[in-house]
Amino acid sequence: MKQAIEFTKNDQTYLYVGPRRKSNTSYMIVVTKGSALIRLGKQEFLITQGTGFWIPFDCLHALTILPGSQFYKVEISTRVTASEKNEDKFSSLCKEAGFFKVTPLLSSVLVELANSPESKQNWKDPYGRLLRVIGDQAMQLKVSSKFASPHLAKDYHDSLSTLLAGKKVIDSAAQTELAKLLDVTVHEFETCIMLREALKLSRSGRKLPQIAEQLHTSVDTLKALAQPITGESF
């Protein structure tokens, strides 16, 4: 990292399937459109519009971004100054992963950073002061990983787990609630999850016929879906 705190605004055209790895910075993601998934161990979390998720330094995780999603990402070095007035005093960042509340202040600062012209993105300019506000906010984060999605009614958490496992959700009420949360149809989400698994298997050296058999689909289906959704061909 060139700076102690770095901000990026991201538009994800295609399905992004990140590897399982340890984070080399602490970072937060705030989704503004679409959704993202973060896996921690055996549990996976759904990050939807208006939701923030914190990943601490050295955290083993895997990130998936659905096509058409937009999100802000703020990366923070392992230790940043707690305030400009006392630059020699360091304060540890949150060491737990989980959802956090996107406060009006944090939301406003992120929007301001996103609208800053590239020529003004200098640590010594107002842009840098906004980044330090983000750093101060990060010091105060309180996170939760109790639920896979904080915005979904408890009655539908099992259905979400089923969906994330790549299985069909049959209950119509659950489908309706999940579609509202995801901003895509359940079928579209199921397709993305299937292609995510196909990409993982392909990267591990599996051949396309083997992948199709394991995912209970056809080679032609995988070929037809791959390019428009993942931007890649099998």
From TrEMBL:
Q: Which organism is it from?
A: Photobacterium lipolyticum
Q: Upper taxonomic classification of the species?
A: Bacteria, Pseudomonadati, Pseudomonadota, Gammaproteobacteria, Vibrionales
Q: What is this protein called?
A: AraC-type arabinose-binding/dimerisation domain-containing protein
Cited InterPro entries: RmlC_Cupin_sf (IPR011051)
